[in-house]
């Protein structure tokens, strides 16, 4: 998918949205970049809600500028403010939360915070930020490894100690209640990759969670497009 195609889509259908399915999370780079640029042209303030075990905020990876580990870095300047990239479920990082927030200006809610505090304080924090920042529309980029590997093992980099499916759904429902979801993607589902040793059972479980979240996002987008 190219940015030119996406820009042409938003130019022709400014009130419509795109749902992406992957695949490598670098696919979200053109999807979110075109979305943010289109919303700016429309005079709308949009935020990206990024569910992931990883920050995807590398400057480059193994000499590659644009990849699944760096795509977020390259959309920051398309946001009205860097902290309009709100990351949820982070837990696999060689650096602390303070590093990412201070270096890149993003807002993060790590998985352990959800598990320790419960989901409600996290929801309150995010929805307050959206209201305080006058955010009008949301794009949800969902890496399936945001979900704990007991539910989402069929992915390239499964991680333990993650969000439960009910945590993710509670957050998404709360967000949709305060701000329209007008773009979204579901990334990194890999049915033939299995870290659990359970084979088909693992793939089916991961696909089920991914499908439930995707169905919710598509339903919300349909309301708003």
Question: Nutshell version of this structure?
Answer:
By secondary structure, this protein is an alpha/beta fold. The protein has helices at residues 3-12, 28-41, 97-104, 111-117, 119-132, 165-178, 200-224, and strands spanning 19-21, 46-51, 85-90, 107-110, 137-143, 181-187. Helix 1 (3-12) runs parallel beside helix 2, helix 5 (119-132) packs parallel to helix 6 (165-178) and helix 6 packs parallel to helix 7 (200-224).
Give the helices and strands as they follow along the chain.
Answer: HEHEEHEHHEHEH
Low-pLDDT sequence parts: none
Mean pLDDT score, rounded? 93
Residues in helices, as a percent range: 40-55%
Strand arrangement in the largest pleated sheet:
1-6-5-2-3-4
Alpha-carbon Rg, integer: 16 Å
Strand content: 5-15%
**Category by helix and strand content:** alpha/beta
Query: Helix tally?
Result: 7
Q: Mind describing the biggest β-sheet?
A: 6 strands, parallel
Shape: globular
User: How many DSSP-defined strands?
Assistant: 6
Query: Gap between N and C termini, in Å?
Result: 21 Å
Note the quaternary state here: single chain
